[in-house]
Amino acid sequence: MNPKIGDILERMKSLELELEKELENTRQNFRYKLIDHKVRFERDILAQQKKFRAGLLKYILFARPVHLLTAPIIYAVAIPLVLLDLMVTLYQAICFPLYGIPKVKRSDYLVFDRHHLAYLNLLEKLNCFYCSYANGLIPYFAEIVGRTEQYWCPIKHAERLRAPHSRYSLFSEYGDAEGFRRDIAKIRKDFEP
Asked: I want to staple 120 with a disulfide (CB 3.0 to 4.6 A). Which of 61, 124, 139, 163 is the partner?
């Protein structure tokens, strides 16, 4: 890997750690803690949040008509998402052990914690569940496909990718035939985070 790219990646990791520290400060400001991946609010904060909850009936009756009309279309997408989830999970369960690729931990990507927010009504919580599922599933899928690409075709593209997956920086440079042949066995085994 180009040393300058390696340096940039190291700085990005450092910034991610800095970001996590800042997020912890935010948690303290809103007086909640994460204990074993579970959210715990202080009692008085939960009581304060409940004051901002929109009643379910009022929420539905005063919903914009466009929201009511498009809701079935939005929720219909859940069907292919669940099928994708099942197929991708089955794919990695069967193929990854055969190739020696470590499995992607689904729970690292699918995070459901918004139901702890007392200011959300039941329908809002359902909407949040749907969005958490969909937005967690896509990077879960991308990580599985990224590991597959790392094993079978670890070559960068000539054009810049808008959102490369986590494995992409390990790939051989586009056009580097010698480097590809020399490094492919090593790249296929480098699954450290």
From this structure: 124
Contact 5, 169 (CB under 8 A): yes
pTM of the prediction?
0.80
* Amino acid letter, residue 32: Y
Q: Is residue 20 assigned to a domain?
A: no
Q: Encoding tokens for residue 171? A: 């790939």
- Domain-located, residue 18: no
Tell me the pLDDT band of 46, cut-offs 50, 70 and 90.
Answer: confident
Split into its structural domains, the chain has a count of 1
In the prediction, which pLDDT does 102 show?
A: 96
Answer yes or no: are the C-beta atoms of 13 and 27 closer than 8 Å.
no
Cα→Cα distances 114→28, 52, 66, 128, Å: 17, 15, 25, 7
Residue 64 CB contacts under 8 Å (≥ 6 apart), including other chains: none
Residue range(s) defining the domain that contains residue 94: 55-189
8 domain residue, yes or no: no
What is the rounded distance in angstroms from the CA atom of residue 109 to the CA atom of residue 132? 9
Q: In this structure, is residue 7 part of a structural domain? A: no
Rounded to an integer, what is the distance from CA 88 to the centroid of its chain?
A: 15
Q: Provide the 8-state DSSP code for 149.
A: H
